[in-house]
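Case study 2.
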Amino acid sequence: MSAISRAADMEKQLATAFAAWPVKPARAVALADAPEVKGRKLLLVDKPDSTQTYFRIGNIGIARSNPDRCSSRS
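Prediction:
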């Protein structure tokens, strides 16, 4: 069974399981803009007995409400 058919089966099961739940609109959450980040930060955790390493690299993205957001995706 492929991952796609398993996902479709799961979606059907979830729809059936939650069909009786009433639909309610979600409240919008107002968040303040994130503060501007200046400089760089590197956090190194030395753990010699670790069997795996994870790298997470990120930054603050463009706001969804910014009119330039669509043009920045192309």
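The chain has a mean pLDDT of 82.
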